[in-house]
């Protein structure tokens, strides 16, 4: 469940987009600390809901409430940022599979609206992503996402701060 939620949250990136001005940041290994707050019930595919027993469904709902009660959650990860990623806008996001509209793209900032849908599970996510490059080694950003599916709606707000670590990505792949 957490992987699905985080995947939908971070789908705002690595899209091909016309007229994108790449961020003026260093290539290589970056470390990102992100903090997110999730409110509401997580979207669950209809097929999964049908397969759950009442006890399993109750347990999942209790887990969602407990997660929400914990407040904001933080995670740290490393990413290898490449020239190709920067050329596609929002190298500091995550996965493809969404449609997007680049609102603003400059060497220091990017704003993107996105919609993600999964026709197999009838799940949908919409949101906005904002990135600021303070300099070539420091990037911050925010996102707001609304996810819907299985009769549930969940709002996610996130922020992140990234800093450049090294020109050599080592074993870390993008």
Order of helices and strands: HEHHEHEEEEE
Count of domain modules: 1
What value does the average pLDDT take? 81
Strand order in the sheet with the most strands: 2-1-7-6-5-4-3
Contiguous runs where pLDDT drops below 50 for at least 5 residues = 1-17
Proportion in β-strands: over 45%
State the helicity in percent bands.
10-25%
| Separation of the first and last Cα atoms | 23 Å
Give an overview of the whole structure:
This protein has one domain (2-166). 20% of the residues lie in helices and 46% in strands. The longest helix has 16 residues, at 54-69. With 174 residues, it is of the alpha+beta class. The chain starts with a helix and ends in an 8-residue tail after the last strand. It has a 7-stranded antiparallel β-sheet with strand order 2-1-7-6-5-4-3. It contains 4 helices and 7 strands, in the order αβααβαβββββ. The chain has helices at residues 2-9, 46-51, 54-69, 83-87, and strands spanning 28-40, 73-81, 98-105, 109-118, 123-135, 138-149, 152-166. The radius of gyration is 17 Å and the shape is elongated.
């Amino acid at each position: 469940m957490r992987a699905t939620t985080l995947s939908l949250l971070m789908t705002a990136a690595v899209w091909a987009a016309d007229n994108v001005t790449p961020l003026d940041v260093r290539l290589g290994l970056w470390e990102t600390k992100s903090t997110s707050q999730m409110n509401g019930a997580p979207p669950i595919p209809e097929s999964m809901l049908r397969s759950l027993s009442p006890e399993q469904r109750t347990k999942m709902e209790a887990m969602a409430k407990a997660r929400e009660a914990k407040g904001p959650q933080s995670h740290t990860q490393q990413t290898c940022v490449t020239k190709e990623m920067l050329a596609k806008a929002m190298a500091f996001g995550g996965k493809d599979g969404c449609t997007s509209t680049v609102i603003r793209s400059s060497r220091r900032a990017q704003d993107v609206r996105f919609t993600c849908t999964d026709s197999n599970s009838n799940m949908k996510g919409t949101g906005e992503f904002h990135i600021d490059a303070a300099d070539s080694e420091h990037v911050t950003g925010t996102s707001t996402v609304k996810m819907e599916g299985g009769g549930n709606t969940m709002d996610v707000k996130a922020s992140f701060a990234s800093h450049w670590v090294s020109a050599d990505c080592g074993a870390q792949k993008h």
